[in-house]
Sequence to fold (481 residues):
Amino acid sequence: MSSNVETNVRPNPDELLTKISDYVHDFDISSQEALSTAKYCLMDTIGCGLLALTFPECKSLLGPHVEGTEVPNGVRVLGTNYKLDPIKAAWDNGAIIRWLDFNDTWLAAEWGHPSDNLGGILAACDYMSQNFPEKEITVKEILYSMIKAHEIQGVLALENSFNRVGLDHVLLVKIASVAVISVILGLTKDQTIDALSQAFVDGQSLRTYRHAPNAGPRKSWAAGDATSRAMQLVWLTKKGQIGYPSAISAPTWGFKDVLFKGNELILNQEFASYVMENVLFKISFPAEFHAQTAVEAAVKLHKKLDGKFDEIEKIKIITHESAIRIISKEGALNNPADRDHCLQYMTAIGLLKGDLIAEDYEDDIASNPLIDQLRDKMEVEENKTFSEDYLDPDKRSIANSLQISFKDGTSTDVEEVHYPIGHKNRRSEGIPILINKFKKNLKIQFSDKRVSEVMKLFEDDQKLLSLPVKEFVDLFIPETN
Fold:
């Protein structure tokens, strides 16, 4: 006679859920290279958020959903006086970080911006530091959480191309943010698995808003939305919501069958600190990363053009497959979000100005007829070697080359750049410029005295790592007279 007595035996969860949970709870960060890079990443990410506050459309999205709502000991939003619940604060911090497409990048089968996770990490740490000071949440917790969030997002991106099935890479922000926020807020390993399963069960963002004819500003707040949703899922789990152990693998109803065309999620290396050590910084230009080297090549050619734009017959751009698929665009560009994902537009600005800044995507600059005249003369071709080197784990190049032909039959030399200045191969060259970028962004919002205080803090690793997060965030709140 069979028994119908129910047991409380926990079903075995999908292996990936367990691996991520084990990593965030048990892995000890020992790489000094990863920790040092994380410090620079924290600097740069905060700076990008502060710069974004100079754009009214970005600022208009910040603050409580209902005006006037006050949250005691609320989580702060960088560069503002808002004190919000942790979920909305994660949204706001995440949105300003991503707004200008100027924070770090990871490129593989999938791409993305691992520092997008800082919106949720910072909100969770600030909440804990303000409300539970006895737990001693310090900047070290932020940096270690960043390393682990980078690793989860980046390693999952190595072989799994979500964009090829139409899903946006912010899915990986949600997964990585859930994992590290779970630890910050004190969830157990099993609860972390539960929260991760919720992230996979969620409907996922489509890439619609990143591509013509629908490219629009949602791509600037999508990551904030993802890290905020991660915070919400962790909080629901903390309140007792159960998980769904086969969220990925369940036949018919699981993530794999519903959203990934039945493909397995591939994990081709163990989680450690590889991604932070190799992350790409956007140092010179607020440009989609596949175009960084194209803009650098354009800036070099600008110096040789001497204003001879009317004499140009053809501009040849040789690039890699991902750039062609994602950011090569012809025809009308409808808004700044459309322009900053157009290889030809960014290259044209580099040729015309010898530079590219965030304001160059705005309507007043885009109205210059020379930009579209140059775009019309551009031919984009793939170099198979560039595409292979882009995916080679020992190279990870992001190569572009430019050559300009003139109506008199002459042409420039080919200007070829394989690695942008933010690449690991150019760290020694890039870090001083990154530090200067951070200082410049600080000066937009704060007095010279505050800027000096922040810069000195980042020069003192011991003081920085041991600083309570509450005091750290205080440094990035508007000064009172």
Observations:
- The first helix runs from residue 15 to 26.
- DSSP finds 22 helices and eight strands in the chain.
- The mean pLDDT is 95.
- The beta strands are 75-76, 83-84, 106-107, 111-112, 312-319, 378-382, 400-406, 415-417.
